[in-house]
Amino acid sequence: MTLQRLQVPLCALWMSVFGSVAFAFTPSTTKRTFVTSRVSKAQLYEESTSTSSPTSKKTTDELISDFCYGTNEFWKQLVIQPVKDYVEIRPAGTAGSDPFSKLTAPPEIPGISRPVWLTILGSVPTALGWYGYYKFSVEEELFQYELQEEGRVTGCGGYGTLFPFVYGVIIGFPLKLLHIPPGDLIVDSAALWILLGQVNLYRRVNELCTEKDSGIGEEPLHTWWALLPPPLDVVVGLRQVHFLSEYWRIKRDEPYDKDIIAEELFPFISSPRFTLKEFFRTPSMWFWFTKDWKDFEFPILKD
Q: Which of 84, 231, 256, 301 is the most buried (most CB within 10 A)?
């Protein structure tokens, strides 16, 4: 059997080993407490378990939370202290409201509203470098928000989501260039990890948008669209940016500010939830210059 045919089971094995390591950094717990000070999260993670018996059988949600928390804590150990100090979670309103302050701000709770135009402003000039910081920030904000609201988490946070991918590329890509077999496995595993994290992010954004006080009221995203090839995966990615930004804006009681990119130039970003067939047959939601186009009537595009 060739190495290429072994990659899928090897990726699964790598994830299993990684999960075991992450669990080793996970205190036995079912409930956590959020804090915006410099008190150790791990300390609070342990202190909030006084009502939980170490021998009690954990539910699936608790096991998922343990894995996600442990993963975040494990990868946090591999980040230098100055970086951890800079990106430590802050209370809402710490950063200024101007674009530069938002682009460079550490994560906050509730999360910072980063509209599509701002995300593009940071991502394009930096060749998507800033988008990595965006990814870290939104994952860490959701992680901390879940701890605050639910006492458990369903995502791996900024450290646990981004850094397995970063270290996977840093280690695996040079090995791949040198045609050393583990390089392919490491890079593929890193890509799989970040992709699964993106699917999970879409699921969590959908849950937030269906909260009673969200101001949105419906699930805007199809999570599986993250698996589609470009540029279709970009469609759902931009929609995630928009609706998460709107959720945090409403949660922070900030005034409405029209996002010209999402609401005028590319209407599909802010449109209500639609199917792939609906997207293809409705050019009016594509671009600003197709707003007056009539729908296509091809039978294959009917739902």
A: 301
